[in-house]
């Protein structure tokens, strides 16, 4: 006959097992929390060390490249290389932090590798800027301090980094140009040469002595101390406009003196023509009747063939008439 089990004994045994399980669970959670706190503290230390390491590596890179003769006076390469080194140090530190927190970086790399196509499509603009920045650094169409025209934006290059080329225009406005668009666009390096040519187009009257006009303009440009003697200033008739003969004046100056010298020579040319009593004509218009008496239309010059409205104001046609002023005076 089986022996009966005491209910109190069974209850006590179950309670002891439950207490033991809870104690083990609490101990396990305490151990996990302790390990996580330790790993989190170490991760924070690694992150702080990464920040200091990035600063130190950037400074060391700048000093090392500064000792190289080819890079010593080229802030473009220095700033670009410093930024690349800083990004690499931060990337290594970030991976170390993830590993310390228990994240399987190999799994992350595998996932990124599997999703490389999607990531590449999503970041194609950013990646193209990085690739273009590297190509700009290799080809060197401009350097920091050069005056350039990129997509119609004229400014001095302040910095070239992984993603942008930073310009500063004459009004001290910061212009950020993505490297991808810079590389695909036409780049005009306005200070890429040591000298530049000033070109001014000036109109004079048809009745003026063109040889004398050219001599006056050349003398006005040559009188400026910033204008080069070799090659010297030149002036020549280049076009026949509606109400003037176009004379082009050119002069060579050093690139840093271009803008101010151009303004000075323009003013000197105007004053020299006025002093020589040489006319600078301006476009003028003549108002003639057009249909109704109160309605007039402008004509480019007197004596030209004009279109006059017909007597019928509802008619959209025109009849050709000629100004008879000269015939009446004759």
Q: Could you walk me through the main structural features you see in this protein, from its secondary elements to its overall organization?
A:
- The protein has 330 residues and is α+β, with helices and mostly antiparallel strands.
- Helix content is 49%, strand content 23%.
- The protein is built from nine helices and twelve strands.
- The strands form four sheets. The protein has a five-stranded antiparallel beta sheet. Strands 6-8-7 form a three-stranded antiparallel beta sheet, with helices on one face.
- Helix 1 (7-66) packs antiparallel against helix 2 (75-100).
- The longest helix is centred in the N-terminal third of the chain and has 60 residues, at 7-66.
- The protein is elongated, with a radius of gyration of 40 Å.
- The relative contact order is 0.06.
- Residues 300-330 have low confidence and may be disordered.
Number of strands: 12
Q: Estimate the helix proportion, in percent.
A: 40-55%
What percent strand? 15-25%
Strand order of the largest sheet: 4-3-2-1-5
Rg from Cα: 40 Å
Molecular shape: elongated
End-to-end distance, in Å? 156 Å
> Number of DSSP helices?
9
Q: What average pLDDT do the residues reach? A: 79
Largest sheet: 5 strands, antiparallel
Uncertain regions: pLDDT < 50 for 5+ in a row? 300-330
**Class of secondary structure makeup:** alpha+beta
SSE order, as H and E? HHHHHEEEEHEEHEEHEEEEH
